[in-house]
Amino acid sequence: MSQSNQRIDAAQKLKKSAVDLKNRPCLLGFDGFVDYIIRMVDKKITKDDITFIPTISSFAERLQRAAGKSSNIELRIQQVKLGGNGPIMANAMSQFGLPITYFGSLGASEIHPAFVDFSKRAQVYSLGEPAVTDALEFEDGKILMGKHEALHGINYQSITRSAGAENFDQLWQQSQFVGMVNWTMLDAMTEIWQELLAKNCPNLPEGERRVVFFDLADPEKRSKEDILEALHTLAEFAKYYTVILGVNEKESDQIAAVLDIGDGPNSPESLQKRAAAICKKLKIQTTVIHPVKYAVAANQYSTAYVDGPFVAQPLISTGAGDHFNAGFSLATLLELDLTSSLLTGVSTSGFYVRKAQSPTVPDLIEFLHDWK
To answer: Which domain holds residue 360?
Structure first.
């Protein structure tokens, strides 16, 4: 089947399946950032006639020229928005019409303005002040400069205390989907998972299909021992859930190295093999890898690959991966096949980087039909 026909097939399956989303409660956490979307001025002819530094490599060249000297770079804030892997993913899923409960750092005495609209669509429990990200945007990617101190106090006790332990357990039991992301920046995340496995998962009703999504979020700065412990801990959720491990290309390199999976230069074929090897090694149900221009996935039975709707000059790129995760998770929750799930993921991300807004399900269906 050609990919255009695959897209039409995915759109039809999505339209048929996405009819009872209000009856599919979701719980996500546990971070929260305010994102400052920034472009850096390259040339300024007049106040309004300016160009921006186009690529990461050209930014690196400018920094290199400044070595041993100095340099001044003007920052232009393009947008201030909700950020963090969890809020961006949860916000995107709320736009689909899924009922969302979110635990994260959204404000101390009151909800930060960046999260107010999201809090109107979701039930939120704030764990304190949000962290901050300066997101430097380029045509070929982004550099995220984070201030993470606000996340240091997040742990299992602060999460359950925010809702009350009994209420939290009830929310956990009723959720058909759980998303727990940004492991790298949350120092206590592995311990949170261990507490959930010990205290909440054993109470889950038997015989009900549930999905849990994990994203380590660029674990390069964490030790091999920490990453291995996290991977083996998240794998334990496979006793209770359909587990999805979502990673971008760089993160898949890091995880493959930690798990001693070697499969040569990256390509759609080799990354499919890598995804399958990760599933086999961890004994989890699904691994999905999303490079910039395509995406691959594997489960215990098959692998799949799709091209993405690549755009050379995105309106925004910060949050694109989280939108992919939201779309792929929606499709998995609806029990779509791997190819349709990947197409839903890349379409969610593709719509977002073109429009700088999260799509609804009708938006996704239209985008799949009319993918230019």
So the answer is: 3-39+80-369
State pTM to two decimals: 0.91
> Does residue 169 contact residue 27 with C-beta atoms inside 8 Å?
no
Q: Is 56 domain-assigned?
A: no
CA 53 to chain centroid? 26
CA-wise closest residue to 26 among 108, 105, 91: 91
Answer yes or no: is 50 within a domain: no
87 is a domain residue: yes
Neighbours of 198 (CB within 10 A): 10
Q: Are the CB atoms for 330 and 292 separated by under 8 Å?
A: no
Q: Residue 22, Cα to own-chain centre: how many angstroms?
A: 22
CATH number of the domain that 313 lies in? 3.40.1190.20
Beta bridge partner(s), residue 228: none
pLDDT tens by residue, the chain, 372 residues? 788 899 999 999 999 999 989 999 999 999 999 999 999 999 998 888 899 999 999 999 999 999 999 999 999 999 899 999 999 999 999 999 999 999 999 999 899 999 999 999 999 999 999 999 999 999 888 898 989 898 999 999 999 999 999 999 999 999 999 999 999 999 999 999 999 999 999 999 888 999 999 999 999 999 999 999 999 999 999 999 999 999 999 999 999 999 999 777 999 999 999 999 999 999 999 999 999 999 999 998 999 999 999 888 888 888 999 999 999 999 999 999 999 999 999 999 999 999 999 999 999 999 999 886
Tell me how many domains the chain contains: 1
